Amino acid sequence: MRPMAGRSQNGDTPRPVQFDIVLTEGFVLTEFAAVADALRITNRVGAVPVFGWICRSAKGGPVASPAGAVVETEPFSATARPDYVFVIGNRDPMAPELSMGQPLRRYIRGGAKVFLLAEAASRYLKEKGGEAQGLATHWENSVILRERMELFGAGTQLASEDGAVVTCAGMGTTLDVVLSVIREHVPSATLTTVANIFLHERIRDFSTRQPMGGTTGVSTGDADLDRAVQIMQAHIEEPVAIGDLVDELGVSARTLERKFRTYLDATPKTYYRRLRLAQANNLLLNTSMSIHEIGLATGFSSGFSALYKEFFGLTPREMREQRRGTAWKRERR
Fold this sequence. Notes:
By secondary structure, the chain is of the alpha/beta class. The chain has helices at residues 29-45, 102-109, 119-128, 139-148, 174-182, 188-197, 223-234, 242-249, 253-264, 268-286, 291-297, 304-312, 316-332; strands at residues 17-22, 51-57, 61-64, 70-75, 84-87, 113-117, 159-162, 165-168. An eight-stranded mixed sheet has the order 3-4-2-1-5-6-8-7, with helices on both faces.
């Protein structure tokens, strides 16, 4: 029988709770740092180190992030028995290494709980197909899956459990997830100290919705205005008519427009369009979605390229080619 995490085989001598942190070329540094630093700081705060970790990759050796950080890794081991595994996301959601296959099955058979972050989660969801309804990934990846998989519906929560696998939004929410794991192994006072070191006010529950899933992105202090922005964020793909928004809030169109101009220096219509174009630009530069798919995903069923050029000064195709050329030159240096 597998020993309980934090105990030796005979139950007397404490042993470190072991993590495998799995990296692929192009890994997201934000997510790696959240996991590794949370474990490191917890060990620093406690009287006795609680956690151990090994960075792994398919082949071992140095693995680089787009930010320029390089991490030395060990290859997967058939004999490794970590308590937890964190698979870090990647700038490329189609990176072949994100399809864990045999290593994932081996980890699960060994009794590990596996956390798949962002692109690693979306790859898992894609491979599960219809069985993955409601499981979490980063909202960017949800858009891609929704546009390319008929009737697919990823969840908007920070994380969701699927047996021994936890799919997660990743990015800044990674810290919430790893602190939730740490909570299981340290006194509450230690956890509070670690969270305070990170200046992290509250560990968000897995069920908390992602900001682009419909919570907040702007906090003006005006309840009607904040609610209006929340509704806009929750309806990027299928925009709500401003008239319907006014009815939902129970205010006059003139009052809502005055509030938008006062706090956000734009009319409701202009702000909503800018919000959708900003998301479209992010998808354009950071995903492999086609321009047509991006237009549909951000509520522009027609005229998307013209509106994009009016706002950004280049067509979507020109912008994508320009950024790809810049990235290629940077990587060649």
